[in-house]
Amino acid sequence: MLTSTTIDIRSPPQTVVRRLNSLAPLSDAGIATLVKAVGERVSRAGPGEDLVCEGDRSDRVRIILSGWLTRYKTLDDGRRQIVSLVLPGDTCDAWAHLLRQMDHSIGTLTPVIYAELDAARFEELLAADRSLEEAFQLETLAGMAIQREWAVNLGRRIALERVAYLLCEIFERLRPVGLLEGNSCAFPITQMDLADATGLSVVHVNRTIQELRASNLIVLRERTLTISNLEALKNLALFSPSYLHLRAE
Amino acid sequence: MLTSTTIDIRSPPQTVVRRLNSLAPLSDAGIATLVKAVGERVSRAGPGEDLVCEGDRSDRVRIILSGWLTRYKTLDDGRRQIVSLVLPGDTCDAWAHLLRQMDHSIGTLTPVIYAELDAARFEELLAADRSLEEAFQLETLAGMAIQREWAVNLGRRIALERVAYLLCEIFERLRPVGLLEGNSCAFPITQMDLADATGLSVVHVNRTIQELRASNLIVLRERTLTISNLEALKNLALFSPSYLHLRAE
DNA sequence: CGTTTAGTTGACCGTGCTCAAGGGGCGTGG
DNA sequence: CCACGCCCCTTGAGCACGGTCAACTAAACG
To answer: Residue B176, class by beta-carbon neighbours within 10 Å (0-12 exposed, 13-18 middle, 19+ buried)?
Structure first.
């Protein structure tokens, strides 16, 4: 049974290993080095906090052990757009310390546990093992691909497809890190956040979700998403997972 | 006076040097190394060609010496979304050879002249000079930031703001590579492409442009864009250039 | 308990889409 | 040289998708 929190009680570094391993095979030595590095400085944040704000300088790499976050930007008049989700196992801003300031903020949706590495320590980690370096590079490239597909979603899908697509993406990104339970997963994201992620209004997200429910495609209650018919949902969403660049297809 | 083509008759490698230099200062040695590498294999493409297609493997780095391109994705039913513009001086897919296949296509809008480097030669170039390596890394990071702002544009700006924003972005990206002439620049992009870039219909892009013209903000004819009142256009677009991560502000 | 946050519903309306037609510039071939 | 086709831009009419505003419920929380 799923709990309403996304704190993962299983060995947390395992999430990161799975995530990187889903992109490129890690050597045993690489896994050991990674697990050690990730255990050195572990921090926590509550839900609704900002890890980094637009305008800040980010001199640390953050590797998410558990919990969900969003990258978002706000316009001067308050309009807000979530530009991507950061899920367990993901790495935040592997190379952002090269920039003088962040162009977006990173906020938590749930309680989050994350490892922090300063830039030098991260470089050391990459230098220590070739398979690690490649995996982290691929993680960045996959993030860029997700970002592009996000633009397609916002620009060219209608509301129903847009929400369906987002559910598919979340589902297929949680799969390789082992956070699915059958055809269900935790879903700690409010309709307001869904609205800011899909470029819709809250009211319309609500109606769209009800339409997906009425079509018997999903069950969504108590912060748990169950996808009753994944194939049908993917078809509706025009979802094809190749952009995730996962090894096992 | 501007010509209707964007083929840059000025020393082409200069464009690349300017672009990288706008992000991080290049050493003299770095510039020399770069100019040499960029001259080794120069290719050309006509307008309306695809340099790379979704699904292809990309094992080469392409550095654009002159001409405009788009990155785009197509949904199964033909809907198309341009996810970013590639302008003179930009580098295409510095690290894409690590991926097994491209998740998007890259097509030309104009005749294009570009340098091709295979992955090994590109790595060599980075290794040769520290300032070059940093500049290319920043180029990638800036590309990611542009991609994020693109999502904001599609998700949270209304049509008028959206088109205005795109014009501002183009203008401010052409500036550091020296492709502005006063308050004008070449504008070799059709309204159909603008529609695919902004997530609007062609008809509505047309009406939107006319509205910008009627407000005396822009003049757009014969493939030339003149921004009559840049400040006003930026205000309308809620455009703030920090996401471009340019050194000189 | 009152307050806040998230979800839900109804009514109305406007931004932007669709469909359709026509015009102008330009290249190509008869 | 003109005719034709093609691409791009433009305009009109009608409509629908999704936004806004407002009110209400339910759960969570202090």
So the answer is: buried
> In a structure prediction context, what are the per-residue pLDDT tens digits for chain A, which is 249 residues long?
333 334 444 457 799 999 999 999 999 999 999 999 999 999 999 999 999 999 999 999 999 999 999 999 999 999 999 999 999 999 998 999 999 999 999 999 999 999 999 999 999 999 999 999 999 999 999 999 999 999 999 999 999 999 999 999 999 999 999 999 999 999 999 999 999 999 999 999 999 999 999 999 999 998 999 999 999 999 999 999 999 999 975
* Global model pTM greater than 0.85: yes
Taking contacts as CB-CB distances below 8 angstroms, the residues of chain B near A70 are none
Smallest CA–C1' separation from A223: which nucleotide?
C6
Query: Which DSSP string do the residues of A100-145 spell out, in sequence order?
Result: SS-SSEEEESS-EEEEEEEHHHHHHHHHH-HHHHHHHHHHHHHHHH
Tell me the two tokens of residue B110: 């104009």
| Residues ≥6 apart with Cβ < 8 Å to B154 | A151, A154, A155, A199, B162, B198, B199
Domains of chain B in start order, with CATH, are 3-146 (2.60.120.10), 157-244 (1.10.10.10)
Cβ contact, residue pair A141, B100, below 8 Å: no
| Chain B residues with beta carbon closer than 8 angstroms to that of A155 | 81, 154, 196, 198-199
Nucleotide D18, nearest residue via CA and C1': A204
Chain B residues with at least one Cβ partner in A under 8 Å: 55, 71, 73, 75-77, 79-81, 83-84, 95-96, 98-101, 103-104, 134, 137-138, 140-141, 143-145, 147-152, 154-157, 196, 198-199, 238, 240, 242-243, 245
CB count within 10 Å of CB B214 equals 8
Chain C: bases < 7 Å from a protein Cβ: 5-11, 15-20
Q: Across the interface, do B144 and A147 touch by the CB < 8 Å criterion? A: yes
Beta strands B69-74 and A42-45, pairing class: unpaired
Amino acid at A220: L
Rg (CA), chain A: 18
